[in-house]
Here is the input.
Amino acid sequence: MTLRIAVCVKYVPDATGDRGFADDLTVDRDEVDGLLSELDEYAVEQALRISEESDDAEVTVITVGPDDAKDALRKALSMGADKAVHVNDDDIHGSDVIGTSAIVAKALEKTGFDLVICGMASTDGTMGVLPALLAERLNLPQVTLLSEVSVEGELVKGRRDGDAATELLEAPLPAVVSVTDQSGEARYPSFKGIMAAKKKPVEELDLDDLGIDADEVGLAGSWTQVGEVTARPPRTAGTIVTDEGDGGKQLAAFLSSQKFI
Amino acid sequence: MAEILVLVDHADGAVRKPALELLTLARRLGEPSAVVLGAGEAAASIAATAGEYGAATVYVADGAEFADQLVVPKVDALTQIAQDKGVAAVLVTSSGEGKEVAARVALRLGSGLITDAVELEAGDSGPVATQSVFAASYQVKSTVSHGVPVITVKPNSAAPEAAPAAGTVENVTVAFTGNAAKVVSRTPRVSTGRPELTESAIVVSGGRGVGAAEGFGVVEKLADSLGAAVGASRAAVDAGWYPHSNQVGQTGKQVSPQLYVAAGISGAIQHRAGMQTSKTIVAVNKDPEAPIFDLVDYGVVGDLFAVLPQLTDEIGAR
Here is the structure.
């Protein structure tokens, strides 16, 4: 039996660019170059490692996003994923995470999977809740925020390093996994990988294909509403001194004036 | 008065500070009630603390499920209580687990979800949450437009203030739904004796300029003199000088303390994303051109191995 691994990835504005908002208060995706969310590279990496450990596995990478989001799929394919699914529909624009999770869940069901792997969060929205929402919608166990993951027979196992404790987790397949940036360095695509990716299949789906009504998603179907976006005023210039032997004392005087000491 | 449900995070039988912040914020929105899950014999004392911070009612549920299964039992309990009591909002701490619990509760309630709020106010149509986004370069104010607002709030978003209320304990029997990952083992993190990074009022962080694992000694000494948590930049963590659990930044912890001290940290976007909402920022760096100096309230251009020990001595002498 082929182990079907589905990796959910997101195309995000480059964090080193000047990120901002469009007139409708959604994330501006035109002004800043996009790329595969760095935290999703770890998910692709773990999918490839599990696939390599398995006798027979297939890695499908799935994204929801506009035309340019294909770049994120190409990157994942060039790393070694086998095929891709791109859900693209103008009516998706402005969806909140509840709406996005509905679309991804339907795309996963249509594609078929034994294991879903996600990154720990996107680098733009940084919510980190999509994996939990997918588990809820698909009625599957969530095995999330893992710094180590493995598939052993019909079980997925992993280590979750939380604030207060480290937990060893396991669940039967199918399951939804998310991995952290501690799970293992993501590989760079090889030249051969980049060339091969151009020939790998990318399936295009829209909301009709997934049986989702346009008014369930997008800005209008969103259950949250952004009222106001303001650029943070630049911090007022602070005092900078050069240490000439009493820098620590000067810093102490400042901290004392601010009542920290 | 509108009932505001607060999930009380606890560890080692004690309420964690962010839960007290949530109870304080909840009072702006209505009458807080607390939910205490899987606390065993500590439930009574945790409930008493919740009462001191304004909880009129404390819903207590226990069972092995809370420890043995991941996330889902808490979702079952919180959803059940929110539905039975007809609450006006649900507040949860913005931790990794807290956000996962909140998300699934929101979906079950048919409610919109806002995560990582740093400020919460009562508005005409429900709570207004402020988020700090894109490495704190924008502030976003949002509301939930569908269902009972479910909002997660970052630690350090408010100063906990006591406001004694009844704290009447109501025991709840939860119908567990299952289909959760099994927790095979749980190893509590070994305490460093320092405050938890995301909860601490003061954080002292070291970066590339610290130069080596041993170099963190001066960072830790300063932290201890201030009663602070220790953080590290990604460069320092990737170099293996300090544990990843202490990483501050986009791919580590996001902190928002009253005071952030950056030592030998240049201030790349990756780091700024994790600390830019700190109230007061000071930095020590050899390079006068380091971008961190654009953020600081007070900066010292100099060698951290000279400045930090002198500062530590000054603090000790006061």
Summary: The helical segments of chain A are 38-53, 70-79, 97-111, 130-138, 191-197, 207-210, 247-257. Chain A has a mean pLDDT of 95.
